[in-house]
Amino acid sequence: MAQLINYDDIRPYSNDELQSVLQSLLSQQEFIRLVDNYFPAVNIKSLASRIGDFNDIDTFQRVVIAPVLEIFLRNVTSDISCSGIENYNSPAILMSNHRDIVMDPAILAFVMLKHFSITPEIAMGDNLLATKWIEDFVRLNKSIIVKRSISASQKAKAFMQLSSYIRYAVTQKHSSVWIAQREGRAKDSDDRTQESLVKMLALSGDKSFIDNVKELNITPLTISFEFDPCDYLKAKELYERKRNPQYTKAPGEDVFSMQTGIMGFKGRVHYAFSPSINSDLDDIACSFPSKKEQAVAVCELCDKRIHSAYKFFPINRYAYKLITGDNRFDGIDSGEELLNAEKYVEGQLSKIKSDNADFGELRDILLRMYANPLINNIAATEK
């Protein structure tokens, strides 16, 4: 089935396309200005003169992208760590919780380059691709385009194309693929795998549902940010939507949120690789007769792996106690650490400009973002 579907409008660019796409990018004034403003260490003229040196995308990423990414990440994080590297067996689908549209895959690329010298392909929504040069840049860096800006009548075909390409990438190209566990960020940090996503991934296989999932070697990945620079924006949106289900964001809000997520300080960041879910899939097949039940069980399995592997920081324990009243973590953090967590929360709330908002409710929403991972972790590990 995979070979009968054309992937040209969604696949990452190939090695053969590298030099021509790079040449085109380096002629785009908007791209050049962005690089000059945010990545001054990159010498555009020098890079343009070296285009002929790059014959494959992996080398380009190691030589050009990795050093730039490392310098940039030093400015927006205080530490990047990872665990469970031994659980990663390529090729696999790395399915993670979703904190930031751009930075989740960018930091993963940094981690993978550091430990494996190669990056996975990245599933990225076309709603982020405002210009042709942005599309060129992300596809040059192994992005798979997820069609979201389409009509309902086009979705079935688009889902099959995406499912088929991902299966082709894993089983035939032997490339790993990163995909978020749900469409869109979990703004309240209550991370849950979307049943429709698991069904989409299995859609292109020609075996049983469980065998189709097993072929993809789904490996849960847990992303933990100490601070989410977009937390106050997410809190405001959740607050507004609760009051008005028809709430729509103002023009430019998505762009501002993306910029804040990229440039804002994240503190300590941790990526935890859990074992592949394959060893549990036969039990699911035996326990649940219907495809729907099996899909739900796969989602719950992914959730448990993701929830069990969070890394926690003082702000999580501070928020957890305020939200639940549970004092089980008292004594872990110093008074200074807890005071800093309180100051951070109040500082983020002060960025919300509103004359009539209930800031008590906004504070509760923001605190829950930091408490929910710990609440879910306790539920996953104490059963």
Could you characterize what this model shows?
Strands 1-7-6-2-5-3-4 form a seven-stranded mixed beta sheet, sandwiched between helices. It has two domains: 2-229 and 264-311, Glycerol-3-phosphate (1)-acyltransferase; 315-381, no CATH class. It has 383 residues and is α/β, with parallel strands linked by helices. It has helices at 18-25, 29-38, 44-49, 57-76, 103-116, 132-140, 152-171, 195-203, 209-214, 231-243, 253-263, 278-287, 291-308, 314-324, 335-349, 359-381, and strands spanning 79-83, 93-96, 121-125, 143-146, 177-180, 218-225, 268-273. Helix 4 packs across helix 5 (103-116), helix 10 (231-243) crosses helix 16 (359-381) and helix 13 (291-308) packs across helix 16.
Indicate the CATH class of the largest domain.
Alpha Beta
CA(first)-CA(last) distance = 41 Å
Radius of gyration, taken over Cα atoms and rounded to an integer in Å:
21 Å
Per DSSP, what share of the residues sits in E-state strands of 2 or more residues?
A: 5-15%
- Treating each run of at least 4 consecutive H or I residues as one helix, how many helices? 16
The average pLDDT is 95
Tell how many strands the DSSP assignment holds.
7
User: What is the overall shape?
Assistant: globular
Concise description?
This protein has 383 residues and is α/β, with parallel strands linked by helices. 53% of the residues lie in helices and 9% in strands. The chain has helices at 18-25, 29-38, 44-49, 57-76, 103-116, 132-140, 152-171, 195-203, 209-214, 231-243, 253-263, 278-287, 291-308, 314-324, 335-349, 359-381, and strands at residues 79-83, 93-96, 121-125, 143-146, 177-180, 218-225, 268-273.
